[in-house]
Amino acid sequence: MKTCSSRFARSGSSILFALLLAASLTSCAWLAPPARPTHVDEAPPPAAAFSNAPTPVPTSQIPAGFYRVNPGDTQIGVAKAFGREPSALAQWNHLSSTDGLRVGQMLRVAPPLVAVTSSATGTPSNSLEQARAIFADGPSEPASAKARLAWPVSGQVSAPFVLGKTKGILIGGRVGESVRASAGGRVVYAGGRIAAYGKLIIIKHDAHLLTAYGNNRALLVKEGADVKAGEVIAEMGADDKGQASLRFEVRTDGKPVDPLKYLPQRQ
């Protein structure tokens, strides 16, 4: 009997010890802080994540016969600035009369040539005809006096504006003299493809006003460039007789006007 009791006591002690040990381990598991996960470096993002990111596109030169839309431009305003009918401008650009314009949109402002095909990008293949069409002669009419322009060169007027006979004035000077923009604006044409004007620059100042600088020896700005008033844009050239002069024209709504009405009087 004593032997059984002794065995039972030892067995009970073992069981009790096992229960206490289990309880101790369980409480440790509850009290122990969670193990920190092993650090794993994040993999870099795949290259495909950047494949669709836009990249800056350089501003390309504006083709002759086209115009890049600026903030605030409208179909009617652009048409008048280039002496075109709004309906014709809409037809050339496949627009309805109520369509708005997007900043940066390229508009055809010269009639397309039927016999000439254009490339897939819409660039005219006959730039000479397009350049002539940009500054085609229109009927002259007087303009109200607005001394809002600056003299492009410092010389004296050698040939004045005559309503119905001339399109602008000639200003004398010296060959190579700096020609400056009369006001800020955007260069909508720069080239030598119109024989009557030699090397010519046309600047669009707003929806109605254009200035033209012809008979230059060298052009210092490109089509599409934004220029400030007084910025040097060209060098004066000489005419067929060897006399240095600048052919300066002002057009409002596409019609030639007397530049002297837009220039300050000289002392």
UniProtKB/TrEMBL annotation:
Query: Would you say which domain of life the source belongs to?
Result: Bacteria
Q: Which UniProt keywords apply?
A: Signal
Q: Give the protein name, as stated in the record.
A: Peptidase M23
- Keyword Signal applies: yes
- Domain LysM as annotated: residue spans: 65-109
Which InterPro entries does the UniProt entry name for this protein? Answer: Cell_wall_metabolism_enzyme, Dup_hybrid_motif, LysM, LysM_dom_sf, M23ase_b-sheet_dom
Under the heading SUPFAM superfamilies, the entry gives: Duplicated hybrid motif, LysM domain
Annotated source species: Paraburkholderia phytofirmans (strain DSM 17436 / LMG 22146 / PsJN)
Picking any one GO molecular function of the record gives: metalloendopeptidase activity
- Keyword Signal belongs to the record: yes
One Pfam family from the UniProt entry? LysM
Please state the span of the N-terminal signal peptide per the UniProt entry: 1-29
| CDD domains for the chain | LysM, M23_peptidase
Q: Which PROSITE patterns does the entry mention? A: LYSM, PROKAR_LIPOPROTEIN
